[in-house]
Amino acid sequence: MPLSIYNSYSRTKELFKPITEGHVGMYVCGPTVSGESHLGHARPYISFDVVYRYLSHLGYKVRYVRNITDAGHFEEEGREAEDKVSKKALLEKLEPMELVQKYTNLFHWAMKQFNCIEPSIEPTATGHIVEQINMIEGIIAAGYAYEVNGSVYFDVKKYAASHDYGKLSGRVIDDLLETTRELDGQEEKRDRADFALWKAAPPEHIMRWKSPWGEGFPGWHIECSAMATKYLGARFDIHGGGMDLQFPHHESEIAQSTICNHQPPVNYWMHNNMITINGRKMGKSYNNVIKLTELFSGNHPLLTQAYHPMTIRFFILQSHYRSTLDFSNEALQASEKALKRLWDSYENLKKLDLPADQAADDQELNGRIEKLLAELESFMDDDFSPPNVIANLFA
Q1: d(Cα 102, Cα 9) in Å, to the nearest integer?
Q2: Which pTM was predicted?
Q3: What is the rounded distance in angstroms from the CA atom of residue 145 to the CA atom of residue 212?
Q4: Domains of the chain from N-terminus onward
Q5: Beta-sheet strands, E only, within 32-114
């Protein structure tokens, strides 16, 4: 059975055909390292770790790029917008890069606990300022961006007049205008829907770089366009991330890259769904965030015990990546028991004293193993479905 992937852009399952035979270019949006990762953050990295592993299992040479956002992720889109890293650095009384290193190290540690393979390349936003400036200059030259008071904005209405802006997220310009809040600094933009490619840095802003428009810092969306283009080319195979990134982040990426590179950037868009608690998305605004370190230690009011990282990984993989996953202690404890059954079965198999030559000659055993592998691969070939693999192992 050939591999098929649900493409968020077309909203259909499509047969996977890489741009270059035998090779796959995959970009996944990484963390903003302004604080500790929580359970919701873990889902995309565990989900796309499985995608990475399975593509490699199929024999593809995969270049997996996952970025680190260490600048440019705004709290708001207005003139008074604060970079998340700069804001948190002031709160913790640390230099911004000291804060970045602290939380990057913690993120890497958590990924190792989950047994996630390191990406092929892990570029940072601050390490690619030149590439971002070059891309912004290209967008301005094409007539789809404008400078005001040292800031540069993408002209969304002009782009939407000739391109399918909003197709990925299912939004239209009128809806965007209705849901865009009035913020300080919005008046300098031609339209409320326009987004920042570059922001002029106020005097007190620590993280700042020289540019053709004055000292400032890049917008959030441009970093992924610049780094994906540099390491994967103008068009690549797979772009992944959480469903909450479809708008505005991924929609903006498509617009920027399409103008700068004269073609859509991605063939297959993949988005994992959210982790919820009592049906509500896990997030700071809902005051229901459980940090990964809290899960590992059990030190959180919503937790009845500590959970091993492999239990959490198993819990996440028991649901399809496109399905919502509701957190509860009962669900994690059930995952803990199920995972123990698998480990116990594995340990019992290792204890079997079956001579190697006898096992190799056992046609019935080999036939059953080959049949099982074929069944498991058929589940994975259908849009990467570990839940069906796990259910089959318990059958």
Answers
A1: 36
A2: 0.93
A3: 14
A4: 13-272 (3.40.50.620)
A5: 61-66
